[in-house]
Amino acid sequence: MIVLFQKLTYVLLWLTIFTMPIQKHFIIPGIGSLNKAVGIALAGLAVFTVLLQKEFKKLPLFFVLLILFIFVNIASYFWASVPADALDKSVLFLQLAFIAWAIYEFACTKERLDGLIKSFVLGCSVIAIQSIYQYLTGSIQMGVSTRFFIEGYNPNSLGIIWSLGLAMAMYLTVNGSKLYSLFIPAGAFAILLTGSRTAMVLLIFVAICSFWLLFKYRIRFRKIITLSLVIIGWFVVSQLPPGQLERFSTVSDELAGGTLNGRTVIWESGLETFSQRPVLGAGAGSYQEAAAVYGEEMSSHNSYLSILTENGLIGMGIFVIMLSILLAFSFKLEKRNPYRWLCLTLITTWMILSIASHAEAQKYTWIIFGIIITAHYINVKIKDPVKTKTKPLFKKRIVW
């Protein structure tokens, strides 16, 4: 009976990750997206399964710090510029933390974790193929803009998700799942169609990491794969709409002396806000309202600045330690372990993309965090099974 519920929980977890990239495709009246509906079912079944088995895996320090980080967000209700927003963002972090924990708790083998990675790539493939199809058939007119993306989605968010999916697809490809290599050209083309300069930078970074993977680990047929990727890359670029490359060419100018599409102006307002409340911050979810006093009432477009401004040095300190743990977990993986490349690529890609987006409150962030923690757990379990024993559910003391 317990095994059955564990499998059912895993299936719902798989569906939750699969529907994340396409969460705006299917809306259920009274509930919201299909992804939200599956997530609610996952939460209920996961809690029931843990209660049924009366034990859970001992939590690593990362999760203890995550609980503390959420507590800081909840406590900020008492000094937040907008108390209601503080509660809303705290609940959001709680939901996102649950996804990371569910991956750690229910995907504790390589086969299961690889299954979740495949679900992410499949979800990315669905929306990438739809985007390319609509572009080729002219289903959606771009108008005066050269940016092309599916209506209802943020092009930058789509580009980021596809970039992360490319890293996962590359991992699957070199580890025997060749079918997922089909997403590589589709994902790259879809990213470039969005015109997202942030995603374009991530695409280049993931490509560099992929070439390093092929030659560092002497992957079979690496020369053929590399040549194929170069040819595919040339073809993809040649199919871009007029003006798209011109948009990408402005990246160097923006980095050299521009405003990064207005982001630096927003950041200046955020830094001014932080200087007024450096220790506790302006309160969770209060960035826009607090920064508006100094000029710009907009989202931070920077995860680090968002946390620093809203949660102060205390919250930022906790989050930095959490990131350090993820980096340490990635480096500690065996050098021949294929997860090592994937985890290092995912966490460094995330650290780059977070400079230009508020990724800390996005589902993809906590999915990759969960993947890294679980990969480390699997690695430790193989090396020393004693360290990965489960803990009784009702034991009073916390162990990590």
TrEMBL record:
Keywords: Membrane, Transmembrane, Transmembrane helix. Residues 187-320 form the O-antigen ligase-related domain. The chain crosses the membrane at residues 34-52, 59-80, 86-104, 116-136, 156-174, 179-195, 201-217, 224-241, 312-329, 341-358, 364-382. GO terms for cellular component: membrane. Its main location: membrane. It is a multi-pass membrane protein. It holds the Pfam family Wzy_C. It is found in: Membrane. This is O-antigen ligase-related domain-containing protein. It comes from Lentibacillus kapialis.
